[in-house]
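Let us work through a complete example step by step.
Step 1: write down the sequence.
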Amino acid sequence: DNIFDLSNWRFVARLRPGANRGTATRALNALAQRQLKMAPSDDQADAKRDHYHISTLPLRESLMRSVGTRLLLIELGAGLLLLLTTAILANLVTVRVMARRHETALRITLGASRFELWRAALTETLPLGFIGGLLAVGLAWWGTWLIAGYGIGTTGTAFAITPDTSVVFFSLALGCVIGIFAALPAAVGSSKKLLTRLSEGGRGDIGQRTRFAQRGLTIAQIALGVALMINAALLGLAFKKASSHPIGMNTQHLLIADLGFHGPNFNSQKSQLSFYRKFGDAMRTLPDVTNAGVASELPFAGGLDSYGGLKGIGGIAPHGVNSFIEFVDGHALRALEVSLIHGRLIDASDVRSKAGVAVIDAALARKLFGTTDAVGREIKLNETYKVVGVIGTLRWLAHPTGRHAGTMWLPYSVAPMDPSFYAGSDMDLAVRSRLTPATVKRELAGLLHKFSPDQAFSFVKSMRSLKSDAYHGDQALPILFGLFSLLALVLATVGTYGTVAYLIRQRLGEFAVRQAVGATPEHIGILALAQGIMLAMLGIGLGIVAGFLLARALSDLVGNEGSSTVLAYAAAALIMALAAVLATAVPAQRARRADLLSLLRPQ
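Step 2: predict the structure and record it as tokens.
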């Protein structure tokens, strides 16, 4: 037996209580090496060259894979949004408390305790926190439905996201806790400082620490908003780049059908391949079908067969080369309209004569021979196959792994001759027609019914639809991060407006003095506008740094190259800058039009 027949097998094992996965992996590799010694010497040499080994993976990680990564990133975005909301809430509560400090001082003078002040504030903040918890439950319910539409947490995956009463109660409790803590600033502060407000007639300035805290929270909320927008833009650009990557064929007017046999009439490879030969000939006689062919698998259409141990005779020595090896009739590659670089495609005569020929793509040609001009070279598996053509590299998956060097196409008639291969039980049909997909589907179903009424297609879809489905789940991240960044932009704008409006109101006395000594209303407006612009510049600068660090952590997903990356940073900074200017312009305009000199007149 060929030792590489086991290269794609997966085994499931349960560790003993207290056992270590690393120890178990070493034990399995030791067992594999003992078994390898019983293999033929050629297989042992190949295994040593290809660094044959066993790797282990926890079952949960194997099941979750990219879905788990996407969920973690969604949680990361939600966490950043929660930090932003907390910063805004803390800032606005502080502003509200400072605006009512004269009232607070009067209550203390009349004998109110801090507990009574806090309890009075609770009547305002606790209902708001509870309402916020209810809104959070509604948004979470909608968000669950949204991400389920992209294949995350549905019943068909390794886990399901379903409504949970404990989560509902947790959200309501969290809202109430936030409301309780939001009321704390009403009871915090020095009683002596509060009592001095009575003698100042309510015009006293806020302390240096309070101003610093307000500015710091405003800068933090702007920075978090910019960081979210940067990474939302980077995720969107990465998705656009990946989904628009050439797949090596013409997807226009191309439909793919999947057919798997069942029943006693198709229990042998010979009967299966004979049916596909006749059915393929019949497909090409359908009206308005320009070409049609049969293949063991086609890109984005389902599972893949990866084989190791390929040897390019006369080429460079490959190490651990795994290739997609698929089987076609003499029409499938032409129906795909692949890009032919050198040589020719497999034709009907190759299939009839069971010729030992192969067509490989450019990626495999470079891996095996160091060049794309590989026509005439030979590739050895159990049998030796002569390369007759090289085509452009095909993209099989939304996220192809680096383990696969490329694709090798063989005539499907050679599959029964090589014990390593099997083709026939489940094949894909490529049909090129200018008719609508619904019309082609109806004609194919009618034709199949004539040949074998008890068989049915697993699916009949356009290649564009299959490609879109393959990338569908990856849309969730840029869309959700886009929603997060939109919410962050709105919240940061509101928070900036509240803070700047209060800070400008605190400077009205200063502005009145400036106007008394000759400053124009336009100059006052510019000074007020600068109050928010300075905060925005600091926040945007910090946000760019935070966004860069976050993008570095997510480099495998967001990418980090080219002018598009610079565009993402610039766009996020510009949008936040415009939002901050708009948030500042309203209170600045109010200060410019105010009768400031009246503040200097005796009351």
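Step 3: interpret the result. The CA atoms of residues 25 and 56 lie 6 Å apart.
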